[in-house]
Amino acid sequence: MKISLAESSPLSQPDFTYGVATAAFQIEGAADSRRPCIWDTFCAMPDKIKDSSDGLVACDHFNRWQQDLALIGSLEVDAYRFSISWPRVMTQSGELDPQGVAFYIQLLDALNQKNIKPYVTLYHWDLPQHLEDKGGWLNRETAYHFRDYVDLISQAFGDRVFSYSTLNEPFCSAYLGYELGIHAPGLKSKAYGKQAAHHLLLAHGLGMQVLAKNSPNTLNGIVLNVSPCYPKTDSEKDKDAAWAADQNLNHWYAMPVLEGRYPESINTLPNEELPPIKEGDMGIICQPLDYIGLNYYTREVYEGVGNNDRHKWVDESLPFTEMGWEVYPQGLTDILLQLNKQYTLPPVYITENGAAMADTYADGQVQDTDRIEYFQGHLQAVSDAAEQGVDIRGYFAWSLMDNFEWAEGYEKRFGIVYVDYETQQRTIKASGLAYRDFISSRHLAKSA
Ligand code: FCB
C-alpha cells in the first residue's frame, strides 16, 4: 500500500516540508546523565503509568543517536522535530550544563550536515523537578526560569537551528498535569489548571521575546494541540457543550498567543478559577509568530448533560486507534478551516499527526497497513485545507519510532519505526517505507 496525493496538491510541491517528530523524555533515556524531571517523579509513583514503566532507558537514543540519525536520513525527510531536555542542559543554579549542551550540538551539527532541518522544541513536558519543588507551573517564577533557559540555550546553539517552538501543547501540560492529574506532576484542581496554563503562556511570550533577540533568523513559534469539537445533535445543550469544550481546548491557547486575550468563556469561570493575570501579561503572551504548529490526532463530539456539564461521545461505527481515538481525518480539515477563518494565522505546520496501532513484528517486518491508511487520510485532509486557502508549510509524522507514551507507557506504539525494547533494535515499519517513498517521489519530481 502506498501514500499518494495529486501532483497538483499544495502538499506535492517541492518546498512543502516533511518530517518526523520525537520528544526528549520519550526517547532519550540516559536519565543518570541529567537532573530529574517531573516525569521521573511521576513514573516512580504507584499506578500512574499503565505498564509501571519509566523513562530511564526509553529508546536509549542518547547513546544511539548516530544510528537514529542514519535512520532519519534513510527516511528521506526534510526535517526532524525533537525536544531539548531542560534538566539535561541547565543546572539547578541556572547555568548551562556543558555536557548536556554538547549532546544537542553534535546532533544539530550532524542534522545540518545531512541537510535535515532541525525543528527544536524547547519544552516538551519534562520540567526540572527542582522547579516543580518550588511550585512548578503554578509558580509565576517558572516562566522567568524558562526565559533564562531559552536565553542561554539559544545563544549556545547559535545558527544551528532552523526552527524553535517554545512549548509543545501547553493544554496538555496544564489540563492533564495540573487539572486532571493524569500526567506529571499529577495535581488535580480546576484552579490549578488555569493557573498553570497562564504561566505556561507567559513563559511562551517571554521565550519568544528572547528568541526574537537571540535568534531572529529561525522560524519561531509555538505548538498547540487542536481538535474540532462537534455537538452530538443540534440541540442547544449539545451545542453549548461543544462550544465550551472548543473554548477550553482550542481557543484558551490560540486566542492569547494570536490576539492577546482569553476567549469569552473566561466570563463563565468562578473567581477562584480565574487565571492570575498581571498587568502587561497579555501583551507579553501575544508575540509575533513566524509560524504556528498544530498537532492533530482526533476529533471530539459532545453531549450536554445539564449543570453545564458535558460528556464525550464516540461514534462506535468509526475505526479506532489503540488509544481508543476515532480515526477522523475530516476533523483535521475542519479545524484548520475554522482556525483560519477566525484568526489571522501565521504559516501553519502540522507538527504532529499519527496513530498507535496494534503492530505485530514478524519475519523482520511490521505490516501496519492501518497506519498507512491513517497517514493517507490525514495527508489528504491537510491537502484539502491547503486547497481551501490555509497556508500550510509542513507536516511531521508522530513519531519517528515507538517510544514512551506518557501515562500509557510503552504499550502504545506510535512509531513508523518499530522498537524492540529488549534489544533496542529498530525496524522500519511498512508505514515508514510508504512515508519514505511518498516523500522521495516528491524529491524526484523536484529534480526532474
Ligand atoms: C501528543 C504529544 C506527544 C505524543 C502524542 C501521541 O499529545 O505531544 O508527545 O505523546 O501526543
Features:
single chain, 448 residues, alpha/beta, 8-stranded parallel β-barrel, 3-stranded mixed sheet, 14 helices, 40% helix, globular, binds beta-D-fucopyranose
Could you explain how this protein is built, in words?
The chain is α/β, with parallel strands linked by helices and 448 residues long. Helices cover 40% and strands 16% of the residues. It has 14 helices and 15 strands. The strands form 4 sheets. It has an 8-stranded parallel barrel with strand order 1-2-3-4-5-7-10-13, surrounded by 5 helices. Strands 6-8-9 form a 3-stranded mixed β-sheet, covered by helices on one side. Strand 11 and strand 12 form a beta hairpin. Helix 7 packs parallel to helix 9, helix 12 packs parallel to helix 13 and helix 13 crosses helix 14. It is globular. The protein starts with 16 loop residues before the first strand and ends with a helix. The mean pLDDT is 98. The chain binds beta-D-fucopyranose. Beta-D-fucopyranose binds next to loops.
